[in-house]
Design goal:
Double Stranded RNA Binding Domain, alpha/beta, six-stranded mixed beta sheet
Length: about 140
C-alpha cells in the first residue's frame, strides 16, 4: 500500500514538472506607419555566428511569398526593407530552434517596421522552417499581395 502511494505521488510530481515545460508563443507587431504590401525587395542580413543558415531559410520563404529576397552578411540600402533576425538554439536530446525573432527595418534609418517572434520549448518544438513560416505568417497576416 505504501509503495502505491509513493508511486502515485511520484507520478503527480512528474506530471506537474512536464506541464511546466511546454511553452508556445507567437507574436507580431507592425508599426502603424509601415506599408508591408509595398515591400517588394528585401535583404536578409546573416548573423556572423549563424551556423544553421537561418538567413537562407528566411530568404527562401520570402521569395516563395513573392518578395524578392537576397542574403549576405552585408547590409544593403537599395531594397525596400532590411531583415534582421535573432535565433536561439537549445539542446534537449537534439539541438532545436527554441526562439526566433525577425525584424523588418527601414534601410536608411534601421527603424523597425515590423517584428515577429516565435518560441516553442522542447515538448512543442517546431522545425526551423516551421518557425520561419510562423513568424513571417504572423507579420504578414494572410500573405503578400
Amino acid at each position: 500500500m505504501r509503495s502505491h502511494r509513493l508511486g502515485a505521488l511520484l507520478a503527480i510530481v512528474m506530471l506537474m514538472l512536464v506541464q511546466g515545460c511546454a511553452i508556445n508563443r507567437a507574436t507580431a507587431t507592425v508599426d502603424p506607419s509601415a506599408n508591408l504590401p509595398a515591400i517588394k525587395r528585401v535583404h536578409v542580413v546573416q548573423l556572423q555566428e549563424d551556423g544553421y543558415n537561418v538567413n537562407q531559410t528566411i530568404a527562401d520563404k520570402l521569395n516563395a511569398m513573392g518578395i524578392v529576397a537576397t542574403t549576405s552578411k552585408d547590409k544593403r540600402t537599395d531594397v525596400d526593407a532590411i531583415v534582421t533576425y535573432w535565433d536561439k538554439w537549445y539542446w534537449d536530446i537534439t539541438m532545436y530552434l527554441l526562439e526566433l525573432t525577425i525584424v523588418f527595418r527601414e534601410p536608411a534609418t534601421d527603424f523597425p517596421l515590423a517584428t515577429g517572434n516565435s518560441m516553442h520549448t522542447s515538448l512543442t518544438r517546431k522545425s526551423q522552417q516551421e518557425m520561419v513560416d510562423e513568424v513571417l505568417g504572423n507579420i504578414f497576416k494572410g500573405g503578400v499581395k
